[in-house]
Amino acid sequence: MPDEHQPDPDEQPKTEAEAEADADADADEEPMHIHRPKPLHGLRELAVEIGVIVIGVLIAIAAEQLVEGLGWRHKIHESEQAMRAELVADDGGQAFMRAAIAPCLDRQLQAIGQAVAARKDRAEVARLAHAYSPPTYTWDDQAWQSSVAAGIGPHMGARRTAEWSGVYSGVAILNHLTEQEFSAVSALRALPSSEGPLDDEDARRLTEAAATLERLNVSLYSWSAGFLKNLERLQSPVPLAQRTALIARARQRFGGCVVIPNPKLFRPMDNLTSEDERRARMYSGDTTVRP
Fold first, then answer.
1. Which residue, among 228, 283, 221, has the nearest Cα to 257 in the 3D structure?
2. Which 8-state DSSP code applies to residue 270?
3. Among 120, 288, 104, CA closest to 193
4. Which of 24, 62, 196, 198 is in Cβ range 3.0-4.6 Å of 202 for a Cys bridge?
5. Confidence of residue 213 (pLDDT cuts 50, 70, 90)
């Protein structure tokens, strides 16, 4: 009787791959061991299981809130950086220049009014009217609008949101006043430059236009000064180098009538005082550009 364990001489030896495949098949045939959950014994074990689940949920919620809070903190930082850049480099420089040249523009308008009252030659009055050329600025608020659209305000805090909102409300008013001024300047320059004396209708229209521009110039000065004051509250004043360059440019164009605005002289109620009081304050300022 042949030995069962004796290899068959006719059988070919298995390759290494075939041997590994047979080993895997044998492993697959091993029975699966199923571990049944142990039944809970008593309220204490039940409380422990529930406590573990609750603590795990709380940890997950806290981690999610932490990540969300860090994300909003980053968004707030980026939003405030964008608003500071917009206000200081763009709107702030314009407000500083507008406040600096306000007395010069006021004197030009007074000269026009005096020429009209004296019924000077039409060509001379027209020359004075066309020489009146206040800067036409666009006051930007794109960074603020982006912040509002992104829902940054509620995460910034009520006080901080109110501060930024207050500054940008001034931007909206300055835009409105600038648009009104542009229309009034067009009316002032509508006088033909032909020779001859002014007639009553020309004198009336010029007087109205000059008076409107005087009021707008005072208002633009007042709101510009208030805007600069708000920038200082946000610890974002117009840089010294920029202010120095703006004053040099203004004096090159307008001469010695340029004043150096000092936001510390501005009071919150200045916009509510009379036009004469605001005009008097408009002529006050520093003698040098302060750091």
1. 283
2. G
3. 120
4. 198
5. very high
* Residue type at position 205: R
Report residue 27's pLDDT band, with 50, 70 and 90 as the boundaries. Answer: very low
Residue 202 corresponds to which amino acid?
A: D
C-alpha distances in Å from residue 20, one per residue of 31, 39, 43: 20, 41, 51
* Residue 40 pLDDT exceeds 70: no
Other Cβ atoms closer than 10 A to 186: 10
Q: Which two tokens stand for residue 195?
A: 């020779």
User: For 283, what's the count of Cα atoms within 13 Å in the CB-facing half-sphere?
Assistant: 9
Report the greatest alpha carbon distance in the chain. 147
In which region does residue 286 sit, left (phi positive, over 0), alpha (psi from -120 to 50) or beta (all else)? beta
- H-type alpha helices, the chain: 16-28, 43-85, 93-117, 122-131, 142-149, 153-156, 158-188, 200-233, 240-254, 275-282
Two structure tokens written together for 87: 């206000």
C-alpha angle with apex 133: 131 to 135, nearest 5 degrees? 160
Q: Which residues pair with 260 in a beta bridge?
A: 286
